[in-house]
Amino acid sequence: xxxxxxxxxxxxxxxxxxxxxxxxxxxxxxxxxxxxxxxxxxxxxxxxxxxxxxxxxxxxxxxxxxxxxxxxxxxxxxxxxxxxxxxxxxxxxxxxxxxxxxxxxxxxxxxxxxxxxxxxxxxxxxxxxxxxxxxxxxxxxxxxxxxxxxxxxxxxxxxxxxxxxxxxxxxxxxxxxxxxxxxxxxxxxxxxxxxxxxxxxxxxxxxxxxxxxxxxxxxxxxxxxxxxxxxxxxxxxxxxxxxxxxxxxxxxxxxxxxxxxxxxxxxxxxxxxxxxxxxxxxxxxxxxxxxxxxxxxxxxxxxxxxxxxxxxxxxxxxxxxxxxxxxxxxxxxxxxxxxxxxxxxxxxxxxxxxxxxxxxxxxxxxxxxxxxxxxxxxxxxxxxxxxxxxxxxxxxxxxxxxxxxxxxxxxxxxxxxxxxxxxxxxxxxxxxxxxxxxxxxxxxxxxxxxxxxxxxxxxxxx
Length: 462
What we know:
By secondary structure, the chain is α/β, with parallel strands linked by helices. It is built from 15 helices and 15 strands. It folds into 4 domains: 19-77; 90-259, 2-Layer Sandwich (Nucleotidyltransferase, domain 5), CATH 3.30.420.10; 272-334, no CATH class; 344-436, no CATH class. The protein is elongated, with a radius of gyration of 38 Å.
């Protein structure tokens, strides 16, 4: 004891011998090894191992000695990790899921996350689905938000980006992801399959955003409103601190911004492109839904661009239709104006045309139709269709005002509505040829003569 400033304590020189358990250690090891490939929720607890040893092997010892051995074995088998350094200008990307109320509908939200590990600056944006166009739009929006393009981005092996993992570990990119990388010129990196810890920063951001930005459950009128709120949350986070750093996230972000590449002059168009063909009913199918085009393009080859919030259809490089994006299945998304030219040649289809069902037109249009059909019969229906076709070239407000004015004047007909609408656009008074409307009361206007004014002079009148 005189050789030590403090008593050294007792040191065991021989291993602890567990005579009752010793022969069963290989059995316990085999159970724990089998658990590695079993579902997480169906792996053995120490208590269950003890029960099996007692029932199957006749183990007469206590539970504590089994529990202690299992704890040591599991601690020995746990994976350890290497702390990583994160140079400025690099990023990590992933998607997360949450629940929100959008437009009064409770639904699952898929949110895109980009994290800059050096500074812990982040960007989060929500989408209805985790689709190709959402993946592209998330990148375009995040680059605009942070003001540059990262030198490299680390991903997991999501199908949107990786078409195939080759035997040597290299990834074969999808065509869409290749366009994204070629446009912004960043290096793409991928983690090991099933190893989320390879991109632990963005994995942590997904959990942080869900717990802080989306708790309680977010309620928004639209995805635009929700994303405006998420962007503001990302900005506010820059005033905070993360980890052991004394500087704020915003102060450390300066090093990242200095290393980022500049944004290209023209951003990438964040859409999925698919070839299609117009059907006999002037419809183009995209992701299980049918979208209408003008009937003049029937049976033509087209290109469909699917954006997050709209579907754009092109023929020979010209945009022929735009529709709000539908995320349902088997839905019919139609613009009534696309079918009016065909209905004009088939007026009996006016009331049964699927594209016109539920068309929210002002009541004055229906009133005009009743007047036209009452005065002209079947010809009145054709004239009403011609009035509707004015909506192809003029705003609805102007046409509705022209219809109202024509009814007020008693000039019930397509020509009158068209002339009044054109006059309103050209900011001039309408000049109607009333001879075209025989139902109007005829007025006789006498030519003025100078002799007629003599009645106003008393001397001459006498």
